[in-house]
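User: I'm new to structure prediction. If I give you an amino acid sequence, what do you actually give back? Let's try with this one:
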Amino acid sequence: MTEGTATDTDKALEVHLCRASEFTLEELVNAYNQTRIDYIVPMPMNVRRLQEYVYNYDVRLDYSAVAVADGQILGLCMLGVRPGRCWSTRLGVLPVKRRRGTGEMLMRDNIRTAQALGAASIMLEVIKDNEPAHQLFLKLGFYETRGLLVLRRPPGMPKIDVGAYKVQHLEKDEAIALLQRRRSVPSWLDETPSLIHAGNLAALQVELADGERGWLVYQNTTFQLGRLVLQTEAGDPCTVARVLVHALHSKYPFKDTNTENLPLDDPHLPGLLDMGYLESFRRIEMRLDLK
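Assistant: Good question. You get back a string of structure tokens that encode the predicted 3D arrangement of the chain. For your 291 residues, that looks like this:
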């Protein structure tokens, strides 16, 4: 257990920082869920989901911070680590312990750890309208890079006729090969390592009668589709997006779809909205340069 830099209030509370690896997954899940009881988007965890989260996003529990006082977990903040960069995620503090410097203490530990690892930058996302967290990140030197959308589409056959097109359905290896060609800049959640770790990848390619064409990589689980990555190879991205998701939902009409972190300026967005995708909420991506 190591003592972190704390405010006077923190010191009065005798808050200490531990590594998340010092706790069981059950302890971390219970503490995390308590910190999110009143959150804008709660996103509750269970042990299996935490295991998947840690694996999918290269979260290092031995580098992640947990704030403790009198044997009670007050808050936690996880750290994802990939070559040359880090990602701060799942910051949470118990509602009754907020505004006492604990969140800042956890974030500063993430920053120090990232610096010690030689990372050039640390990224994070904050839900839009979560002003206390947003202001904390700005105070620590993070700056906004872009807005990101979380989208959902309920099950159902496409309701819009997109005309004739050819479609080719592809398996995992071909999907991964397509990801190597993508031109969009992914967030940590949908970087290629994240998608490969998450598994169940598939893809499809479409071509319209006039030569417009593109591809879509997605995750196909038992009950849900997600992690959509779209790319237009020729033609109008809005038109190609309509055809891509028409092909997707014609094949899987009974599956709910949820996809995260589509950039607000993605040219495929209008096509997705035309085809029944709905905005669930927004995130703001932020970055802190360490070198």
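You can read the tokens as a compact description of the fold. Here is one thing that stands out. Residues 1-11 have pLDDT under 50 and may be disordered.
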